[in-house]
Amino acid sequence: RFSSDEVIRKRLLIDGDGAGDDRRINLLVKSFIKWCNSGSQEEGYLQYQRMLSTLSQCEFSMGKTLLVYDMNLREMENYEKIYKDIENSIAAAHEKISECKKQILQAKRIRKNRQEYDALAKVIQHHPDRHETLKQLEALGKELQNLSHIKENVEDKLELRRKQFHVLLSTIHELQQTLENDEKLSEAEESQETQMEAEAKQ
């Protein structure tokens, strides 16, 4: 014997997405039996119209299911395209990060040169020609300022690329989770349809 909860659960599984297919089939069978056993022509015609109405509802439900299936296929194709775009974006991000690393190495070399310039400036300070020495120091100061700006720009670019790369990885993770959920939903729907077909054959 089945409890009321088990009966409700079984009917929901048979009914699919709750569109009332099981109820419509039962109603169609009952209408067919009444049509076969109808005593008058008027009652037979009424049962015949009811069967046509139920069949129309079943055909509409089937068409709706096919549309949902086609929509899911298009969504899967769209997800695959998005996934490829993300892969391309990740590859581009790797290239940008590699370029930023090269710029960092260049900045380190510039810093080393700046240290050498500082050492040279100390030597120049002992030069007897004070006017020329001041000119050179001014030029070195401008060069150091430009190098400092270059270093700051490179560091800002590197930080931006790191943030962009983190966003890309987060998007991939969310997309993978969505695809897994869609696959689980599809498997559940296929299982329900298989069970409905098996019970319909019984």
UniProtKB/TrEMBL annotation:
A matching Pfam family: THOC7
Top-rank lineage group of the source organism: Eukaryota
Gene Ontology biological process terms from the UniProt entry: mRNA export from nucleus; mRNA processing
First-listed, main subcellular location of the protein, grouped into a coarse class: nucleus
Disordered as annotated region, ranges: 181-202
UniProt entry keywords in alphabetical sequence: Coiled coil, Nucleus
A Gene Ontology term for the protein's cellular component: THO complex part of transcription export complex
Family assignment from sequence similarity: Belongs to the THOC7 family.
Task performed by this protein: Component of the THO subcomplex of the TREX complex which is thought to couple mRNA transcription, processing and nuclear export, and which specifically associates with spliced mRNA and not with unspliced pre-mRNA. Required for efficient export of polyadenylated RNA. Plays a key structural role in the oligomerization of the THO-DDX39B complex.
PANTHER family cross-referenced by the UniProt entry: MAINTENANCE OF KILLER 16 MAK16 PROTEIN-RELATED (PTHR23405), THO COMPLEX SUBUNIT 7 HOMOLOG (PTHR23405:SF5)
The protein, known as: THOC7 protein
Organism this protein belongs to: Ptilorrhoa leucosticta
Gene: Thoc7
